[in-house]
Amino acid sequence: MSGWEDRIARFGDTSELLTLLANPDDPQAAAEAERLFWMTLASGWFTAFADPDLPDFVPAVNTHLNCIGTNPDFIYGTASIDGSGSYLLTGERGDGLFLLMDITAGGLGVMDELGPSLGTLDFDMLSLDDDGRFSLLLSAEKPLDWVGEWRHLDPATRSLSLRQASYDWDKGREARLAIERTDKAHMPRHWSAEQIAERLAALAGYPKRLSGMAMGFIKAQREKDLWNALEHDDWAGKGGVQGQHYYQGLFRLEPGNVLLLETELPETVRYWNVQLSDMLWNSVDWMNRQSSLNGGQAQIDADGKFRAVIAVDDPGVANWLDTGGNREGAIMLRWTEASSGPTPSLRLIELTDLRSQLPPDTPDVGPEMREAQLRARRRAVQYRRRW
Q1: Where does CATH 2.60.120.1600 sit in the chain?
Q2: Looking at domain 224-383, does it have CATH number 1.10.10.10?
Q3: In degrees rounded to 5, what are phi and psi of residue 15?
Q4: Do residues 227 and 248 make contact, with C-beta atoms less than 8 angstroms apart?
Q5: 193-244: pLDDT as tens digits
C-alpha cells in the first residue's frame, strides 16, 4: 500500500467512531458525524506543520471550525514551542475583558498529546508602555542583560494557548501578538519527504482523535444521564481554563416543551457565559443564531437572577437560547475568576406555562426586534478576527 493509500485508509478508520452515537443507524446522525470528521481534518491543518523553532499563534477553532464546544466569546490561538528554548512575545494587549495564555505540557495540535497545565499567564499582569504594548521573554533562566518582563518557562512546555474574551463583539481593540524564538538563529525550514510523510500520517489520524474526544464527551454525558441536568467540572489541562467553573449537561426537549435555566450571579465575576452545542459537541451556529449569551448580552432580571429559555422555536423573550433546530444537545456555563460558582437550575416546562414561570416584567421580543438583533449579531461576529 502506498503512503497516500495508507493515509486515506487511516482517515477512513475515523468511521469507527460512529459506534459512539446514540443511534449509529440514524442517517442524519451519521451524516452530521461525517461532517465533524471532515471539519476536524481541516482544523488539523493549522497545526500539522507547526514548528517550535518558528512558532505562530494559529486559530484552530472558530465559527467554521466550531468543534469541541468552541466558546463564541473567545478568539483562540495556539502555538507549539520547545520548553528548552527562549521565546519573545510582543504585541498589544487590546481592550477585551481578558487575554490569558495557558502554558501546557501538551495540547490539541496534530503533533501534540494532551498534557497538564503548567500555569496561566494573565496579560494584565504585564507592564505596558504608553501605547499599550508589551514585551515578554519566556525562558528557563532570565538573561543577565534582560531588563523587560520575564517569566520562567518550564522545560516540559509544549504548547501555548491564547484566549481573548470579549462581551461586545463589534467594539474595542483586539489584541495583537507575535512570537519568536530567540535562542536559535532564524532559519526557515525545508521539510524533508520523511517529515512530510510523518506529519501527514498524523494529520490523517487526527480526526479520529479529536472527533473521538468530542463524541466521547457527549457519550459520557449520556451515560451519566445528565438530561436536563448539570454537573460541575474542571477542564484545566484538558483544553480549558485553569480555575474556571464549568457547569455542563444535556438538554432534551419534547414538542411543546422549553427548558428554563435559572441562576444566581456571583458577587464578582470577571467573565461568564452560557452556550449550546449539538450532540457531537459542535457549538451551535452563534453567528446566525442566538445560541449563546454572555455577561454583556444577557438581560438580568430585577431580582438579580439570570434566566434563559432553551427552546427550538423563539419563545419571544430576550434571553432565548436557540437550539439550532436540535431537540437534544449540550449546555455549558462558565464562571471565570468568580467570587463563587453558583449552580444553575434547569426546569422542563410547557411553553404555554412559560410566562407564569418568568418575572412579570420580562419584556417581549417580537419578530422585528429579533430580526434586528440577529442581524446585528451576525455583523459583530464577522468584525472579529477569526483566521
Answers
A1: 224-383
A2: no
A3: -60, -15
A4: no
A5: 999 999 999 999 999 999 999 999 999 999 999 999 999 987 544 555 656 7
